[in-house]
Design a protein that fits this description.
Layout: H1 4-19, H2 26-29, E1 36-41, E2 44-49, H3 52-61, H4 63-73, E3 79-84, H5 86-94, H6 98-105, H7 145-156, E4 165-168, H8 175-189, E5 195-199, H9 200-212, H10 216-224, E6 228-232, H11 241-256, E7 260-265, H12 277-283, E8 287-290, H13 296-309, H14 316-325, H15 330-346, H16 353-364, H17 374-384, H18 389-393, H19 399-415, H20 420-426, H21 432-448, H22 450-465
Parallel strand pairs: 2-3, 4-7, 4-8, 5-6, 6-7
Antiparallel strand pairs: 1-2
Bound molecules: adenosine-5'-triphosphate (ATP).
Adenosine-5'-triphosphate binds near residues 171, 173, 233, 302 and 305.
Length: about 475
């Protein structure tokens, strides 16, 4: 490999070229700052990055501009390869520059900082957006057309179109996806705009902590000094009077100052129970729209998009089979596709109709009528791994316990409608980012390790066959 010095020089010129490239959205530009060039071998430039998220963002969103910039600046290098080097993450976490540490210290809920958004005088700007949820990969169909159009209108003209925008619908139908997409779009459209995404559970916890720590002012500033507040799953505030009161004031302040509020919920405002009438009437000030279960064609299109994005090789007739079986929840739809492709990749088999049918038969053999609760999952997982339930809730980091815990978290996400923070709470008050990490890790391990695939599949069957209660 050529030495790192050359690579550093080349990378500096590449970055200079990219600085003027208007195709790069501000929300992903910050990831380029995390690259550490290592050297070149043959025609390939090797770049280290601290984590999977940075690799994915660069590979998926920036491959073309980066390749072109390399070709423009190097004589004989025509492509690049990214290697994840977690040591960089450690180094960077110690780094004092907060803006560089932000995207990866906080895992993937936070978008990379853009130049325009760089914090001033130590103030941190966190939009907390998941880079995976953008309008580009949101499939539009009859079930969500109106919600999508309203979301786009709000993202294009925050506080001008509809305020608040209230989106409701059952679990797993794209409400969170739309919220994040609004945030990304507004950030790209208006550099420097302050966007904040928060789940209602986090809002509640944040509020309670602020009281406990006498940090009321900082709490207020966090939620009131924003241009767009995206608040997810507002039904969680039901019956929580003080938190509702805090939200009421936040809402009024933002609305009075022409700041956009977007709210999601599992039911329409008028069906929210445990909310004060004045709160509900505010939810009805702007535009209310729902998302419903997608029709077959939309389900197929969603699977196609997912397969493309994850570079899964799954023929159309198989996507159709899956779409016909899973009808009411898009999270489950995606989960089923992952099961099929994971099985194929483990067995080094192509994804054929026979293979898909075997996997689907296993998955759907059991009645889907029973409603699975987290306690069913936890009891079965503990029994399966010969552990106690306390082991799963507790803090042991032994490999078996940690894997069993991550599988249980994954199954809670797949088989119940619990949100990430709720699952985190169940498992010994862990942060929702831990649940997100567990999910991602098990999805990945299922493709790579037969033992994990088998464990997850057997456990799913046991849980469905005989819920623990
Ligand atoms: N129209 C769509 N196009 C592409 N992907 C979609 C669409 N709708 C939902 N998804 C995907 O389905 C999964 C579940 O969606 P999301 O988390 O937004 O649901 P939700 O309605 O917020 O559910 P919950 O109420 O449980 O939080 C996500 O991975 C999301 O990207």
């Amino acid at each position: 490999m050529s030495d790192g010095g050359d690579a550093h020089q080349l990378w500096a010129s590449v970055m200079a070229t990219l600085a003027g490239d208007l195709r790069i959205p501000p929300s992903v530009r910050g990831f380029l700052d995390l690259v550490e060039p290592q050297g070149a071998m043959g025609s390939v430039l090797y770049l280290d990055v601290p984590n999977d998220l940075t690799r994915d963002m660069i590979e998926q969103r920036l491959r073309i501009p980066v390749t072109e910039a390399i070709v423009d600046n190097a004589v004989d290098i025509t492509s690049f390869k990214i290697v994840v080097n977690p040591e960089l993450e450690l180094g960077a976490a110690l780094d004092e520059t907060p803006e560089v540490a932000t995207p990866y210290v906080q895992h993937e809920v936070i978008s990379a900082p853009t130049d325009a958004m760089r914090p001033v005088a130590g103030q941190r700007v966190e939009s907390r957006l998941n880079p995976k949820y953008v309008f580009d990969n949101f499939v539009i169909g009859g079930s969500n057309r109106f919600a999508h159009a309203a979301a786009l209108a709000v993202a294009e003209a925050p506080a001008k179109a509809y305020n608040p925008l209230f989106i409701y619908g059952d679990s797993g139908l794209g409400k969170t996806h739309l919220l994040h997409a609004i945030g990304h779009y507004a950030e790209n459209m208006y550099p420097g705009i302050r966007v904040r995404y928060v789940s209602s559970e986090e809002f509640t916890n944040d509020f309670i902590n602020s009281i406990a720590n006498n940090q009321g002012q900082a709490f207020q500033a966090r939620y009131r000094e924003v241009d767009v507040l995206l608040i997810d799953d507002i039904q969680f505030l039901q019956g929580k009077e003080s938190t509702q009161e805090a939200f009421f004031h936040t809402f009024n302040t933002l609305h009075d100052h022409d700041k956009q509020v977007v709210i999601t919920s599992d039911v329409a405002p008028k069906h929210l129970t445990g909310f004060e009438a004045r709160m509900v009437s505010r939810f009805e000030w702007g535009l209310i729209t729902d998302v419903t279960a997608p029709e077959l064609e939309t389900r197929i299109a969603i699977l196609r998009k997912k397969a493309q994005a994850e570079r899964m090789d799954a023929p159309d007739d198989i996507l159709e089979q899956i779409a016909e079986r899973v009808t009411t929840n898009i999270r489950e739809l995606e989960g089923t596709l992952i099961r099929v492709t994971a099985f194929a990749s483990l067995n080094r088999l192509p994804v054929t109709m026979d293979l898909a049918q075997t996997v689907l038969k296993d998955l759907f053999a059991q009645s889907s009528e029973v409603v699975i609760g987290p306690s069913d999952i936890i009891t079965h997982t503990a029994g399966y791994f010969q552990l106690t339930e306390e082991d799963l809730y507790g803090s042991s980091r032994s490999q078996t316990v940690a894997l069993a815990r991550q599988i249980a978290m994954y199954l809670c996400r797949e088989m119940t409608s619990l949100s990430l923070p709720k699952i985190g709470q169940l498992f010994g008050n862990r942060d929702h980012t831990t649940v997100m990490y567990a999910n991602k890790k098990i999805e990945k391990l299922m493709k790579e390790k037969r033992s994990v695939y088998t464990q997850v599949t057997e456990l799913t069957a046991r849980i469905k066959q005989a819920p623990a209660r």
